[in-house]
Specification:
- The complex is a heterodimer.
- Chain A is mainly β.
- Chain A is 0% helix and 55% strand.
- In chain A, strands 2, 4, 5, 6, 9, 10 and 11 form a 7-stranded mixed beta sheet that branches. Chain A has a 4-stranded antiparallel beta sheet with strand order 1-3-8-7, with no helix packed on it.
- In chain B, the strands form 3 sheets. In chain B, strands 2, 5, 6, 10, 11 and 12 form a 6-stranded mixed beta sheet that branches.
- The chains are: A mainly beta, B mainly beta.
- Chains A and B meet through strand 4, strand 5, strand 9 and strand 10 of A and strand 5, strand 6 and strand 11 of B.
């Protein structure tokens, strides 16, 4: 398996624009997680899904953030409108029968 | 609630010397504990985990960690450090119960191994 695949790897956008981050989990994994990494706050859980259903979205910063998982092989994290303080590295991770989570390479988002 | 503390922002060690990266945790039930490593501009790579059984667990690249329930600690160790071990290390925990599956991460410790 190619592992967790995220796209794009880098995204630069202007404040106010919509940003969509994408994730393809490892085939067969039934949990998917979105994390955000910043220098100030470290790794924060934003939301996670089980069998495509959102389980806990309490980490989503505000209504500008939304996440979907329309099927077992695809998830999106959308920010609309984006703000400079959203600049961070966003990670997607998945896990299945094993207990450890496998992470993608991340998307580095810069909002100018 | 679950939490992880990594008390050291940075650990410096000379190549060939043993290294320890500290981690303490808090969880309401029994813990599942993990160590991940992050190299620059990369994702997190799984190193090792404690689920149950032997308190000393061995993982990738010669790393090991010791689970200490009374001290609620899970320190990462390696007998002989390599320059290539220089990276950011994260400890993570989750409750072993069937409920919350998401990992809670510590703030990370930067390991610097000097030649």
């Amino acid at each position: 398996d190619a592992g967790v695949i995220q796209s794009p790897r880098h995204e630069v956008t202007e404040m106010g624009q919509e940003v969509t981050l994408r994730c393809k989990p490892i085939s067969g994994h039934d949990y998917l997680f979105w994390y955000r990494q910043t220098m100030m706050r470290g790794l924060e859980l934003l939301i996670y899904f089980n069998n495509n259903v959102p389980i806990d979205d309490s980490g989503m910063p505000e209504d500008r953030f939304s996440a979907k998982m329309p099927n077992a092989s695809f998830s999106t994290l959308k920010i609309q409108p984006s703000e400079p303080r959203d600049s961070a590295v966003y990670f997607c991770a998945s896990t299945g029968g094993t207990t450890e989570a496998f992470f993608g390479q991340g998307t580095r988002l810069t909002v100018v | 609630a679950q939490s992880v503390a990594q008390p050291e922002d940075q650990v410096n060690v000379a190549e060939g010397n043993p290294l320890t990266v500290k981690c303490t945790y808090s969880v309401s039930g029994n813990p599942y504990l993990f160590w991940y490593v992050q190299y620059p501009n990369r994702g997190l790579q799984f190193l090792l985990k404690y689920i149950t059984g032997d308190n000393l667990v061995k993982g990738s690249y010669g790393f090991e960690a010791e689970f200490n329930k009374s001290q609620t600690s899970f320190h990462l160790k390696k007998p002989s450090a390599l320059v290539s071990d220089s990276a950011l290390y994260f400890c993570a925990v989750r409750d072993s119960g069937a409920g919350r599956r998401a990992l809670t991460f510590g703030s990370g410790t930067r390991l610097q191994v000097q030649p």
